[in-house]
């Protein structure tokens, strides 16, 4: 009954995201693993799927690209009443340093694409910098580099003014996005000039490749 | 100064000027060259001879004299300057009393002059070998240079002129020269450079006479010499000669009677100046330098210099304003800059209020934003690699672009430009003009002949005439046919028309022929006149003989026919006119008649005025009498016709002239032409033309540049293929003419129509498009120019003006593709707006896109094309035009910010306010408490219930309304409100503060390890892997976001307890006889099986025992341990209680504000035998378990949350009276505990409490608060804190705290002796110890309210003691401070110890009942580190505390009322908790208890037990009473209820149980209330 009612007049819209954290480019590092989590607003709730995950450790590809491939799947469905606070995926990459200490290699975040279809995103990653030269040396020595207290910091704008970061590496994520009831609730996310969004997004995906 | 220096330069040249001028004069003068030659030769030698000694001798000789003269003035001049004045000036005019400054300027002038002179000297010396070129140059120079003087030095020269009058006659030369000059140049009355020169160079000292002669002769020789040399250059100088012609006469005489034209000796003297080497001492130079130069110091500029006077520097950052980071400048540079700026005028405005240089925040980004480039192992980086991409055609989104929808849309326009013919060109000679005219006429003639209209019309006329004739013939034979009649008249009309047309054509033919012949004749005559031909044009007139007779006949017939027709016509006309005449005459006559009658009437009336008026009107209306038409005369008509025929037709019999134009004539070759013509032809050759092709006003291509041929034709023969994308709006050709190598000018522009779609390449006709230019060209050769009037007549009359014009032959067509498809944008392809007549309909196509923005253009176009205003397609365009034409679009007279905001507004404000959803979102965004973490705001309006806002609105409404229902006490209600407000404001403050982040909030960073730490960590390596005494390890902390109900548990580990009260044996005599009251005995009897052997020994001592268990209740969840035995039980049990956050919100802020408390109650489990009969004892056990509350420990959840774990031994809060229980005193033999136990007066329990999983406690806010403390003090405090923290990281060290206003206050300011309430002191006037206890009790009675609860755990606020008392709530700090202050006032030594503990009020004892382990001897520096030391002496901080505390009187009545109310509420509650049982109240017992409670208060619950017990037993002999008094400070009712509930008295479920409840409220000053609740259950024993 509830399902029927929902079908008749939806009160929430659904956003299904699947895809994978495909690969990363960290030319200077090897043997990395990554963690992901989603950050979303008050009006969002995950209905199914894993909100957080931690991947296997991967070594560099031997070829010229030197990509670190995880192909770590993401599959989550959100329900929401408000597009504000659209989910962001936060990826943090870790790996051993010279002495085998587990060290963070990059943080990055990107919004889950709005439009349904297949998308590919490359996220530039960054890590917080030590506050001083001395700190830098000691952190290198003892293998404890500065880390964010909460990786979710990278998904929000607040408080960024106090930190210094250094960019390193990229992570490529592919998303397949399906939305439900968004248009019914008045949120039209497909570009206006598209007559047939499915076709266009397909070609879009091809272009992205 | 600039002017002066210019002058000096001129002076330098002057010598030569003079000379050259002289030379010019002499040239003219001295005709007898021979004489001059001779003279010259001798003089040259002479001069040479003379010059040398002069140069050597004169200088030193003159110097002393000059110095003498100099000294006079040197007296008043600067002494330094005196040395450098080799020559005297003309006497200083008396009028000019020079100031010092002026003088120094002159001094400087003199210097410069000297330099110039020495230059001139050297030049003069070189004069001999090569003076010539200089002459010329100087001549010219003078002309220009002297002019400058005139402009600039009027004043000065006037000045000098005055001086001149004083000059001696020796200056004559100057005068003469001057005169001469004045003549030769502009006749102004101010002197020129000459005078200036003299002014500066002349020596007015005495002079030997012979010099004059010398100079004279020398001059002569010089001039002669120059004359000779100058001969060659005569021609050049001749120019100047001409100029000076007029002045000749005067010069003559001047030269003749001159005395000293050149003052050579003086010059020689000038040139030789001997003076000491110029040296300025080092110190002097330094002095000078110091005046000009400035070395900024690198020392810091004192602040006072940088800020305005009497101002303190103001630091915006300290005021809480964001100032941004200044760019980094090294201190020394900054100082230098500041010093430099301060030297300047108004230097201070570069400084800000804070005394620093104004600077924008550093714009440098901290990190590079450029992405890194990864290089492959191969050299080329992938980003830099060049990839081939096939060119892609951009897709146009513009509908005005052709073929944007069509990928293969390639359209091509072929423009064929074959050539250009000028019909007029500036370089046309007169002949050309005629030729062009002739050609034009001939073309016209050819065209006419081709059309042959005359012939056509003549034939038509004949045909018509025949037709008329035939029809007339027919009508003649037959009956007159009305149809035929009609047709005849029609024919006649047509005949008339045709004839008129034919006549006109014939006339035209004739005149054309005539003009052709005339022009040809003119041309021939012109050729004859100029004796050459320019054009190959030749006109032949071919005569075509005609048969004279037939011709004449035709001619005559024609004339006759015409005459007849005309006559007929005239007749008709005559008849018509006649008729008209008749009618008019009739009218006139009738009118006349009427007039006459009128007149008669008028006369009768005989009124003059009216008559006049009438007459006037009559005259105006009087019609003219018609004139009868004349009949046409045949002769006249014939005459007319013949005349016309002569004019317009060839005479009969005359041969037909056919002109034929040919270009066979020969053009006269150049060498036979006169010069002007040759120039013209050369000019033509120099000229060339090219064309630019502009498509949509953009240049797309241009032709090659071709020379104009002599017949002014240019052949291009180029075809341009335009591949087009844009719809062709315009096609334009521009003709450019280039002259020689340089100039290119636009001759003309012409528009080519865009071809129709049917015009395809190959089929297109070549069209000639005329152009013309309004350029005005005048040439200085035979060319007639353009736009310039010229004439063919010799006398210049009959002028004509021709403009450059010509024709371009071109063809424009659409190309045809490879497969024969024309490359035309199909009209059907255009979606809308561009149908076939696209020019008219589509605005863009016709006026271009740019036109759309130009309203006027658009409106004009709309008016022209007559847009259909009703066509919906044009709706927006029409609207635009309406606005434009109505002028509504005028610029408003005001400026509006964000004028487009309206457009972007998502919804109107009203709508936003009305919408519940938006409201909810807004409230949440504002972080209003009720909605702060509201999740999933419904999407639809209808899903939001009004209930959601109820709480919030209620709160808003009741903000100012005091609700006394919950509080039972007006004051407390007020306080609660106040507290609420403070809380709100503080929370808001911290919510904003929460959005400020520190680095440590975001980034975990390892501290730089100190050496000590490193050592310690080294030690750690040696630690045993499995220590014998394991410590609790830190567990992983969890962020609170992902939690939900049931995820969190509270773990309570109850380990052991000490000194639990034990049951007392009943000693009362009353009890013994009662059989049934053998409960204790019974119990003892039943217990042996449970008791350990040791206790059985106790049993032997007849000692009552206890079976305690612990019950933990939290959020109404209850858990209990197993029952242990004895007063020192050991449970070691772990209890798990679920934790539920309010509203399911597990965020940090929410958790921090959880007010729930953990109640740890200790009960005694009592077994009652319920057996009625002893006989049954053997067969079954019938016991009832009762629990007796012994005491409790309360721990707020917030404490656990913040401490993350609680581990320790706590004092059990045991009521002062526990009926049936007592402390065992000195009965225990366990010596080990004796020492401890003797000290402790209560029971203790050891607990470990924590939360599973561990939650990350909210971080305290470290916002930097405002402060009024001294900066130095704060720094010291920080340092002190850091030091302490380093030594004992686990210990808290406080130096500053935040007061209730949110300001940082130094902690010692809170400590100040304050008077305790007088009543308390009065109570024990002698016993200070007792008084102190009383005071401590008073303080303890003030309710405890942790800051973390009231302020959502954000920070610790310290209120002053008066605030504390006003609020009647506070946490440990306030209590401690108040107590400390009281003790200080009572003359005790008191310290404040700050520790971390559960907020029990134990410190009131500690102040004097010292915890054992702390040594309070602060004099031992080893143990106590003082904050204030020698280095930082105590600055005598004033206290923030009030001078005196004012206490309100005790309000007994209010206390009494409150007492009643509390009692009532509690009774109701107990009944409520026992829904299944009837609750009976024992009034007797209640009254007994009520009497007893004040006693308790008086003795503070001590030493009354036994009496009380006895008394109770006495009074309630029949009942088994179990109960206890609860003592609490009063804040609200709720805690009281909670406390009563936690004791579990109500849980007794014996059916006949009765209850007794008594409340006593004791009021202390300042409304501090002590509440006693005595609750007891009674079971009637039989």
From TrEMBL, chain A:
PANTHER family: B9 DOMAIN-CONTAINING, B9 DOMAIN-CONTAINING PROTEIN 1. One of its GO terms (molecular function) is hedgehog receptor activity. Belongs to the B9D family. It is found in: Cytoplasm, Cytoskeleton, Cilium basal body. Keywords: Cell projection, Cilium biogenesis/degradation, Cytoplasm, Cytoskeleton. One of its GO terms (biological process) is vasculature development. The keyword Cytoplasm applies. Part of the tectonic-like complex (also named B9 complex). Component of the tectonic-like complex, a complex localized at the transition zone of primary cilia and acting as a barrier that prevents diffusion of transmembrane proteins between the cilia and plasma membranes. Required for ciliogenesis and sonic hedgehog/SHH signaling. Its main location: cytoplasm. InterPro entries: C2_B9-type_dom. It comes from Chrysemys picta bellii (Western painted turtle). One of its GO terms (cellular component) is ciliary basal body. This is B9 domain-containing protein 1. It comes from the Eukaryota. Pfam families: B9-C2. The keyword Chloroplast does not apply.
